[in-house]
Predict the 3D structure of the following.
Amino acid sequence: MTIATRADSQAIYTQDIEYLVFQAGNQLFAVPYLYLVSILDSPAITPVPNMAPHVRGIIDFHGTTVPLYDLRIKMGLPSLPEETKEIVATLTIRKQDHLNWLDKLKREVAQGGPITVETDPHCCAFGRWYDSYQPDSFALQSYMTQFDAPHRKIHRIALEAQQYLKNHEPASAHDLIAKTEATELRRLLRLFDEAADKIKTLSFEYAIVIDLPGRDRFALGADGLKHFDRFAEVIYPLPHVFTQERLNFVDAIGRQQGSEENREVLILNLPLVLSPDLPPARTAA
């Protein structure tokens, strides 16, 4: 198999070789196994000035320095460390939101209503974020499910407090809030604090070290590794609409029949990944 720039109309993509399938952002990519040198866990990256934006820096590989190219940045996304930092910051803000929410509920109950705080757990800022957040780590997915029950219960007490006020039972509303502070709210706040550490621990990346004929050795950043496999079908060349509207450093698609992964796997044109001249692409749908 040869991989060349698009200027080379003789580039050939085939299902007759194995590929390493990996993830960057929410997209699956593939590189031919024959170019793979090694895979490193959580490499230490040293930034280097005056490099292309998607070159995060250099890593050490058996005493030699290798540049690491970040496909996330190439796609116009934040790097994985930047995304992790943003998520941790978001959780800090959403934690404070719920403290403010309960303080407001207390004031409204003390004043005899009306209750105006958000009662739907899916409509608060955290609820909207939580419903859309899909971590790749199974361990992180399992941990994040613990938010669901206390978060729902906390928002539900606003409806219960409102009913107590309608029934002229303000003391019961006050007791409900005090009990929630000591139980579900305390549990939710602990989850917010622990989630930041979990995300930092479980959001780590890999470096896929590549030897491409005629090029210096380099590495690709990956959020997760999927599998080695042959594709049942390889689509090349890509439809014109795809190359115009989606990723600008992909020339072929690999598809697997009967696989749990029904998403398209995008086969990288490695010279175009290394190119500093392409503008950031939009992510594939």
In short: The radius of gyration is 25 Å.
